[in-house]
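Q: Two folds, back to back.
A: First:
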Amino acid sequence: MFLFHQWPPVDVNVFITTSSSNIRTMKTLLIITAFIFGSPALVFAQTGLQKESIKVWGNCGMCKKKIEKAAKSAGAKTATWSEETNVLKVVYEPAKTSSTAIQQAIAKAGYDTQDFTADNTAYGKLPACCHYDRKGTDSSTTSQH
């Protein structure tokens, strides 16, 4: 004969004896969850990162690659140059590099920036498609304006 008080068939002793194990499991899951959801906050909360927009003269997709590569070689964590706006957006750590160092590297690659002018030799080595209208007539080697 079936008795309702026995349904569902659960052994109460299982919960009592494994309660410390369940607590450890729940603590572990809580720690893992906190780590997974807390890690992105730590990454985005890195202090000391500087974001900057820098005017850089150029023309084409090849310019984009060279400008971004030069910026990264000078210590920029990220560098994205827009053909349409001629603006380079960089993120860098001021303790490791500076806007000046990034712009000097870009000028050495042959591209004029808002504060530096590439020398004629570097500009002349650029492919024909990369010959942009120069920002000024002064073409001293990466001189600051």
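A: Second:
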Amino acid sequence: MSNNATYQCSYFYSWEYGLLLFLGAAFFVLPSAFTDAWLVYAPMQTSPETIDRIFRWTGLALLLTAGGFILKSRWGSRYLLLGDGVESRSGLFGGKVKVLRFRHMHGIVISKTLMGMLLGYGTVRFTSDRSATDDVVFVGIEEPEALREVVRKIIYGEENQAADETTSPATADPQQPVVAPAPAPAPAPAQVSHSAMAATGSERTEPVISEPERNAGPARILLSEATDEEIYTELARRAEQNSQRINFDADEAR
């Protein structure tokens, strides 16, 4: 808040002392009326002047007691709502001052009596997060709920403003160009070793075949793709071809 708000104790907070003040004034101004009523209902041997004097002094005592309390509660205490906290000043000359900053405020407690609920006043206690002796109390002010809402708006408004300032793009340097983040590199294709491929059966290796066998053409049968019977037949055929080739070479040598 830009300006400090001042709160005072409500007139209704001292309604009991107001009644005592009225009664004391009546005793002090009209003691004879009370003396006559007293003697009618309770006759006494005491002279009426003595009874008048008793009522007059009683009225003066009530006037001083009730008037002093009302003066102290109304003008002897002032409560301030600051921009960053709350402050209470007690004493006719503001001799005792207590200040509680919002950053150290733990909670707000409102207490009301039955007459406070009817007349709209109550006591607001601002509790501190350090110790109970640091609490600040606004005694008997009017509309305590409205004060609580004002304090909450100040506290939460400052928190929201601080959060907006930290996250707002306006806080960035306008002269600095905005650089888009570089795209993440694409993941490299997974390389599978030959041993792993052979273990999973994803790669099949052909057997090593000699040059004459490679020239045999489509009649060649891959051993890795043939059944046992086909392998036996192929091996027999190859053995027969080899024996014929050996015989043919021997005949030519002769």
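Q: And?
A: The chain has a mean pLDDT of 75.
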